[in-house]
Queue: 2 jobs
Job 1
Amino acid sequence: MNFPAIRMRRMRRDAFSRALMREHTLLPTDLIMVAFVIEGEGEGKREPVPSMPGVERLSIDGLLALAGECVEWGIPALALFPSPGPAVKSEDAAEAWNPQGLMQRATRALKAKYPQLGLIGDVALDPYTTHGQDGLIDENGYVMNEPTVEALIKMSLAQAEAGMDFVAPSDMMDGRIGAIREALENAGHIHTRILAYSAKYASAFYGPFRDAVGSAANLGKGNKHTYQMDVGNSDEALREVELDIAEGADAVMVKPGLPYLDVLRRVKDAFGVPTFVYQVSGEYAMLKAAAQNGWLDERAVVLESLTAFKRAGADAILTYYALDAARWLRE
């Protein structure tokens, strides 16, 4: 009888040998928790997001409790998204750079209590605009590039002054990374990092997130195809990443996550810079719904999905599952 010269299964036989040859291992330090903040400081306010079971919008006191859990479980950073009420929304989104606005107050409170926890602030106008777009619009509803960039500069400076560690422009305007970097440097914020949403696609997977930040109703039947990337493109993603790196980005982002693993791998291979990925709301909602129906083992599929991001080249993963995953990894 002819036996195979090499038996690949030998190393798979036992848990110890599988561990020794494992190429990628998921750790809590790979994860970034995502949180939504609302008004209601001191009231312990919590608002469930119906399309994202288990996810809640939190007032600042609740946010501090969540931050404490992140520190306890070894999660190094928190990505913060505001969900301001309709009273502060406007055409020009001016509330986004109000020094006493929701995002700035939350940042100061978090940094005062947990200075060791990294904070990543979303820089996009859609939570603050009456039309739900990520930028300022003209009379035809088209998102204008340069006026939007000027607004994003103000927003970034307000967050940096409040103590944000990373500003994270997620708008996909042309030239905004260079403009924000120059403004930060000129204002003396030389240590404020920029996480550029460099390859952000006009994806259908964002629906639950727009519910969470309160922009879905304002956007209505509108879309973001004139500034976010076409889902059929990957060469274009490399051009976007290259431009953002040249303009001063400290890290780049691919968003969404699982449907774009090919883009993630290409970005990491091409540039070798710190590369983040976002397991977006639609991905979370699908896994959660399948688990709640008993169709999938939630813990197993979540950890497998997060490991897939690492295998594809991600240095850090933004996920609503960060705390759950950290707990599971400790068990």
Job 2
Amino acid sequence: MSVYDTRFLIEYFYSADNKVLQKAKLFLRRDNNKYISAVVLHEVYNLTLAKEGRQTAKLRSNILEKEFKVVNVDAELAVASAELRYKYRVPMADSIIAATAQILRLPCVTDDPHIASIKEIQTVWL
């Protein structure tokens, strides 16, 4: 069980490195309970929209919603995110993703240095 950051999904969808892609696929296959923040869904949709168009962005969004449990931002998560953002001076999206991992008490799959700097959560990478 893990919370996945946008950077993992960018590697999964766009990596030119076959080794990285195979590791990402294996990582996902082994995880039966995968979570993403609604912010990750937003970021992946936006990036896909820019790179591949609306149709692909919608398809990818639908797949993500089926494969991952999407965690919406509620009041508890918003406050936890603001606390992390203030303490570590990280971007809002990163603090929301980190707060999602913190509240769920799960590791975050990322290589993002902003998220990795947050001591309240564990991060893992391929």
